[in-house]
Specification:
293 residues, 11 strands, elongated, Rossmann fold, alpha/beta, single chain, two-stranded antiparallel sheet, 36% helix, nine-stranded mixed β-sheet, Alpha-Beta Plaits
């Protein structure tokens, strides 16, 4: 079983559209959406949820009003202004509590307890392209890296149970904790970038990231015809760093039309852009990191 993770240095490069296209072409696969902070793969795959479970992603302080003596020590010590006082009753704002445990530790009467809080929900679904593992963070919650890890673990378990040989994962943009959780231990990373100054800058950071973790990587330049000068810079950087540019995908309004129809461009169109993506998928399958040993 192999895992391909699709990431991008910044949002808006077309990462999810490319991932959905690859999912349309792959056989015997599980699709995973690890962009849990802003999940949108479900808009294309239209999943039918078969299983769901809440995810406990952190802890927060809870004040027992019956035991609280309103001494104010918790409010004095809290550095996040998370302690509220309404009509003389002390409480905790769940949106600003960082779960640091200071208030609970120093409460003179032990009226404060640290409790796990529900940070999101993860799902196993059926789609027209096979099984799909995805998740959604609750508003203003953190620890998305842990939820990403949970999604990947469940996708691998599902692949083993069903005898499927590849996991196609839609990762997060950027280089932060959710991205690190998405790529650690992956067999291959596909970086989707765009020929803009910010796109090129952030792509370089993702290359540094996968190099640090020693994960093989490839680059797809999406909307390459918007700025050929930046394309040349991207290709020169990739050549210098031993990263193959496996596709140059043109700007194509069919991507938008396909999304409006809840489809990938592979399903929506048989034009030249679909042909380029098909060729890219063939290159991915033939790469040593993904090809079956």
């Amino acid at each position: 079983m192999k895992e391909l993770v699709v990431i991008s240095g910044k949002g808006g490069t077309g990462k999810t559209s490319i991932t959905a296209s690859l999912a349309s072409l792959a056989e015997n696969k599980v699709v995973a959406d690890c962009d849990v902070d802003a999940a949108d793969m479900h808009l294309i795959l239209k999943p039918r949820v078969q299983f769901e479970e809440e995810f406990e992603g952190g802890r927060m302080a809870v004040i027992d009003p019956a035991a609280c003596t309103s001494c104010g020590e918790c409010a004095r010590l809290c550095r996040f202004d998370a302690i509220t006082v309404i009509d003389g009753v002390y409480g905790v704002n769940r949106l600003t509590c960082e779960g640091c445990n200071v208030c609970a530790h120093f409460c003179p009467v032990g009226a404060i307890e640290m409790k796990d809080k529900i940070a999101g929900t993860w799902f196993i679904s059926d789609t027209r392209h096979g099984p799909f593992v995805h998740a959604a963070m609750n508003i203003a919650e953190e620890n998305s890296g842990k939820l990403v890890t949970k999604v990947r673990q469940e996708a691998k378990k599902l692949a083993i149970e069903k005898g499927l040989n590849i996991i196609i994962t839609d990762g997060s943009p950027g280089i932060g904790c959710p991205v690190i959780a998405s790529i650690t231990g992956a067999d291959q990373v596909l970086i989707v970038t765009e020929p803009t100054v910010s796109g090129y800058h952030d792509m370089r950071r993702t290359v540094e990231l996968i190099s640090h973790f020693r994960i093989p990587g490839m680059v797809c330049i999406n909307k390459y015809d918007l700025n050929t000068d930046v394309v040349a810079e991207i290709e020169n950087f990739c050549r210098t760093n031993g990263i193959e540019v496996i596709a140059r995908v043109p700007y194509d309004r069919d991507f938008t039309r396909a999304m409006l129809n809840a489809q990938s461009i592979i399903e929506y169109s048989v034009g030249s852009t679909s042909a380029i993506i098909r060729t890219m998928w063939d290159k991915i399958l033939s790469s040593p990191a993904v090809a079956e040993k």
